[in-house]
Amino acid sequence: MALHLIKLCVGADSIEDLADWQIKHLATLQRQKAEAVLAHVTRQTPKRSAEILAGGSLYWVIKGFIAVRQRIIGLTPRVIEGVPHCAIALAPPLIPVARKPMRPFQGWRYLSEEAAPEDLSLKNNGLPPELQEKLAVLGLL
Q: What are the backbone dihedrals phi and psi of residue 60, each rounded to the nearest 5 degrees, phi first?
């Protein structure tokens, strides 16, 4: 069973903001002739990496709601200014999920398969994300 990570997406107001930032970041990497891989660098390295790499995703919290996920394709150690970090490599597609309220927290957290929200699709409820967010705040979704 896969294990997921959850992280606040600071500075993004929507899934579209996150997508735009990632597209611009990949373009910058290509201009610099660097490897064009989306990666989020974090200070802590997950100890349960084998479980994460067995199909886990990074769930992004945007404006107080788990809103979207990206599949994790690698965890690579990095050293920045002499301090160990971890680069979480992400597959490019952003997959919207059923919005679920989430309080702020620092860093990242593990997210179990059972606690992870479902991917949005027409079978789920087909409601626009804004309406889902309002219904989730009211505890109706």
A: -95, 130
Structure tokens at 106: 């620092």
Rounded to two decimals, the pTM is 0.83
Going by C-alpha positions, the residue among 90, 99, 50 that lies closest to residue 71 is: 90
Neighbours of 102 (CB within 10 A): 18
Residues 4/116, Cβ–Cβ less than 8 Å: yes
**Predicted local distance difference test score (pLDDT) of residue 91:** 92
For residues 132 and 138, give the distance between their C-alpha atoms in angstroms, rounded to a whole number.
10
How far apart, in whole angstroms, are the C-alpha atoms of residue 40 and residue 25?
11
Mapping DSSP to helix (H, G, I), strand (E, B) and coil, where does residue 129 land? helix
Q: Where are the domains of the chain?
A: 4-137
